[in-house]
Design a protein that fits this description.
253 residues, alpha/beta, L-arginine/glycine Amidinotransferase, Chain A, 3-stranded mixed sheet, 5 helices, 15 strands, 26% strand, binds citrulline
Length: 253
């Protein structure tokens, strides 16, 4: 179960965020409203939400999931793969010091976006992507082992991050799409498969037995409900325009 979440407010500079989506510029005011609803959803799942201020120098700063990996007493600050995002870690490291005594840090030449890291119980799957390299994954696995966890890597070639295409819903269940449907590394899970046209919704988020699902994907919502979960649909259209999914908007621990 999670007790805490950390989010960061979007800044007006979000219009300059990195994107390949081709969906147009995000609307700042609408992004704020969607962010408010996201925070409320986390609170309704019983989490205490720490809201960090926007940093205008970092247009992608609200995608906090990429800059840290948190698990009970293990905190890792990453080294994001995109140069424009590397500086986001400074304020995150300061924030995490309020919660964690020891903080590990990924160092060069390693790069890791924690959107590439899916935790499933005590095991962490790390996607090797355009943002996360083998040196970074190796460092993360080393830190995890110090705390009694383990990790392994999966090569990915589709989507921005591993978690763009797979989410762990606890109870040995995953929501999965695209190339990951046939990855032997994930064969041990019960898969809720998502069709390519709904791929964005494979990034859904388990929070204390509820599942946050992006609004606009009724087939996915029905499949997750049929698997026994209560769902909360959230409109995150403005973050989708920046290749961001639901999970990227928070760190949950
Ligand atoms: C980026 O390209 O880094 C951001 N525009 C989107 C990051 C999304 N993060 C995530 O999926 N974990």
């Amino acid at each position: 179960m999670f007790n805490q979440a950390i989010v960061r407010r979007p800044g007006e500079s979000l219009v300059n965020g990195i994107t390949t989506a081709g969906l147009g510029q995000p609307d700042y005011q609408l992004a704020l409203k969607q962010h408010d609803a996201y925070i409320q959803a986390l609170e309704s799942c019983g989490l205490t939400v720490t809201v960090m201020e926007a940093e205008e120098d970092y247009p992608d700063g609200m995608f906090v999931e990429d800059v840290a990996l948190l698990k009970e007493r293990c905190a890792i600050v990453t080294r994001p793969g995109a140069d424009a995002r590397k500086g986001e870690t400074e304020s995150m490291a300061r924030q995490l010091a309020e919660f964690f005594d020891q903080i590990h840090t990924v160092e060069a030449p390693g790069t890791v976006d924690a959107g590439d890291i899916k935790m499933a119980g005590k095991h962490f799957y790390i996607g090797l992507s355009e943002r996360t390299n083998a040196a970074g994954a190796e460092q993360v696995i080393g830190f995890l082992r110090e705390h009694g966890y383990d990790g392994s890597t999966i090569m990915i070639s589709q989507g921005l991050h591993l978690k763009s295409s797979v989410s762990y819903l606890e109870n040995n269940k995953i929501v999965v799409t695209g190339e990951l449907c046939s990855k032997p590394e994930l064969a041990r899970f019960k898969a809720i498969e998502i069709e390519p046209e709904d791929a964005y919704s494979a990034n859904s988020v388990w929070v204390n037995d509820r599942v946050l699902v992006p609004a606009g994907y009724p087939v996915t919502s029905e499949k997750i409900k049929a698997a026994g979960y209560e769902i909360i649909e959230l409109d995150v259209s403005e973050f989708k325009k920046l290749d961001g999914g639901l999970s990227c908007l928070s760190l949950r621990f």
